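Subject: for your reference before the review

Hello V.,

The reviewers asked for a structural picture of the protein, and I figured it would be easier to keep everything in one thread rather than splitting it across files. Below is the amino acid sequence we used in the manuscript, unchanged from the supplementary table.
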Amino acid sequence: MKNKFLYIAILAASLSYAQNAARHWNGKRCAVVLTYDDALNIHLDKVIPTLDSFHFKGTFYLVGSSRVVSERIPEWRAAAKNGHELGNHSLNHPCDATLPGRDWVNRENDLSRYTVARAVNEVRINNSLLKAIDGKGQRTFAYPCGDFTIHDTLYYNALRNDFVGARGGTSGFPQAKEVNLDDINAFVEDGTTAAQMIAQVEEAEKAGSFIVFLFHGVGGEHPMNVDAGEHRKLLEYLKKREKDIWVATMVDVAKYIREQQK
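And here is what came back from the structure prediction:
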């Protein structure tokens, strides 16, 4: 009888250890980061109220020169005060016009015509603007168009100390200790259904990893768009899985990863 009780105790302890060992994302099985690019009206009008209704916080990558920023500063400030991250998406959103499919990039915002100094200065100017809005000294960066280099030079090298991390645009499910904080993996969502996004979350969980969703339009206002109803279904799923899934801003997850890599 004693052996039987000892076996049960050992089995229970083993199961408890296995469950706890799998919960290495702030005590949960995986992390999810909801990011939204380009400072769109719909982010303020629809996305933030929807996130707030679920008590989730998102990361909004703002382009400093956008009128949606300059004309709606009080609303962005209120969003930041409520826990959402205002991330840096540069001052003018420069993209490399020499790459395929970049006919829409105008000459003034062609990253291939920038100097490294100009790119760095514009990002830092945008940081000053964002700090004036939210008063915060820590945030993350997102590469416009996912472009890293100016004539083979990684311009973020000069900005590494200005940010907690930088979100890229390459998908993947790395372990926390393997994450490159200069190029944090992200999944670009365009026309994606809730079922597809939920499957991505489940893959991240299975891998013991995390997932960063990269949204633009949610219900319109951008050529890269996800239906608002599908976006809401994803949030409903995440709410139901709150015990197992940590939904947080990019800056908070990047800080957590940084701690794990020490």
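For the response letter, the relevant points are probably these. Confidence is low (pLDDT under 50) at residues 4-21. Residues 119 and 218 are 29 Å apart (CA to CA).

Happy to draft the paragraph if you're swamped.

O.
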